[in-house]
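Dear colleague,

Thank you for sharing your sequence with our group. We've completed the structure prediction you requested, and as agreed, I am returning the results in plain text so they can be pasted directly into your records. Please verify that the sequence below matches your submission; if there's any discrepancy, let me know and we will rerun it promptly.
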Amino acid sequence: MTFSNPIDQIAVALAKAQAELQPIQKTIDGYNYKYADLYDVMEVILPVTSKYGLSVTSIVDINENITVILLHISGQYILSTAPLKPKSDEHKDFGTSMTYKRRYLTLGLLGIHPRGDDDDGGNNKKQDEDNNRSNNKKQYQQNQTSSNYNAKKQNNQQQLNISKDKIDLLNSKLMGFPEDIRLEVLKELKVNNFSELKNQDYANALNIIIKTINTYDGE
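Please find the predicted structure tokens below.
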């Protein structure tokens, strides 16, 4: 595994998430065993990880290594990489291997595992079973989960404090105007300083500044 430096914030968030994660049930029938597929894993972890500002994503490099990254809204991260090694050059085998490795790397990053022993062992039979069960209904459910996760991530991003660049832009709009104009804008925004704003407040702040300036120019 590879870590950002520091990892204090992501470590605290991960500890809180682990305390609330429910056991992952094995719902998929394999060859004389049951296992929890990627959808089962993500269905359990996403509602909890997003609650504590954590998200999970993955990338595949040109050498066919897959990296799963556990991100925190602070920018801190923990990542783990493994070779895909599909059993053939067929697209379905590549996708099956990617799904399989994403599942195990994700479980490893979060320090959790399905209830009971891990029966599938990573063999080709298990990968075939994963692929055979990737029907339209399952794909729809995965897409819905992904959409909900992206919406939560976007909402978390909007709740972050306004960036320095946006603060500078707001200040630049007031350059050359009396301090009374700035105080009037801040009063209407109900803050003492632009740094107290959230990202979603930026457009409203800009509109208030423009309205206040236009009023001043008309005096």
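Summary note from our side: The chain has eight helices and six strands.

Kind regards,
the structure core
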